[in-house]
Amino acid sequence: MGKRGRFGKYGEVKRLARLREAKLGPRTFYNAPDIHKRKNSGLPRHKTLVESVALRKAREEDRQFIRYLSKKVFREYGPYDITIPRWFDSGAVVTIVAFMESLPVGFAILGPLVSKMPISGESELLAIAVEPTRQRRGIGSLLMERILDEAKSLGIRRISLHTAQRNIPAQRLFKKYGFVIKEKKTNFYVGGQDAVLMRKELSDTFPEDVFD
Ligand SMILES: CC(C)(COP(=O)(O)OP(=O)(O)OC[C@H]1O[C@@H](n2cnc3c(N)ncnc32)[C@H](O)[C@@H]1OP(=O)(O)O)[C@@H](O)C(=O)NCCC(=O)NCCS
Question: What is the distance in A from the centroid of ligand 1 to the CA of 33?
């Protein structure tokens, strides 16, 4: 597999360097509670009450869950169960975790927040994921809304993201929140899949536009 795309010169390797030295925590494993192992939680789609979902910034104790869910939903694209916890460890990101019944059910990571910030005003939604048995109940939307709020409060003016070209559910979520496909990136992931770069402007004027 080539060192292209996300894992190549301009990809994850370089990104990680930007996110400071990774400080790996203890290599313990998250034991998914039964709530995550059920094939079907019994709740009809879209019936989760938003009031039953709590959001907060991630803590060290959430690291195992982030690793567990990353492995579950991103494994086909590459070693994201390693990469995403490293982003979290970097301290240069904002990580939000969603909870239901006190159990983590999803997370989203925005970064990097070093070097280029706030000069460029651009940040990247590095990952967003919801436990598969809890998807399609609005949790991804809640995470997205919180990430947008965090970005605005940090003065971020543009958010970009990469997602697999064939990941239509994710693209629909992003489009719902105003992200637009800007570019296709061939062979972006270590698994060989193509990606699309999507972007959303949070501000009318982005620094480079000021000089147009
Ligand atoms: C993408 C993801 C985070 C969405 O989370 P979610 O909790 O299911 O999202 P929501 O229930 O808030 O749905 C929001 C919108 O996303 C779209 N969507 C979500 N799942 C969808 C699906 N299976 N099919 C079609 N559209 C879907 C819809 O437009 C939906 O809006 P609607 O309910 O008004 O139709 C979730 O599917 C997931 O974790 N996927 C695996 C990880 C991933 O691919 N992450 C994105 C790349 S980083």
Answer: 22
Q: Which of 30, 29, 25 is nearest to 104 (CA)?
A: 30
Rounded to whole angstroms, the Cα distance separating 74 from 80 reads: 6
Q: What CATH architecture does domain 52-210 belong to? A: 3-Layer(aba) Sandwich (3.40)
pLDDT digits (tens, 9 = 90+) for 27-38: 445 677 766 665
Q: Indicate the pairing of strand 158-164 with strand 122-130.
A: parallel
Centre of ligand 1 from the C-alpha of residue 173, in Å:
5
Helix axes 63-74, 80-90, angle to 10 degrees: 140
**How many CB atoms are located within 10 Å of the residue 194 CB?**
14
Tokens of 211: 């000089």
Q: Which residue's alpha carbon is at the smallest distance from atom 22 of ligand 1? A: 169
- Kindly list the domain boundaries of the chain, sorted by start residue: 52-210
Q: Distance between the two ends of the chain, CA-based, in angstroms?
A: 40
Tokens read off for 172? 């629909």
| pLDDT tens-digit readout, 108-141 | 999 976 544 455 688 999 999 999 999 999 999 9
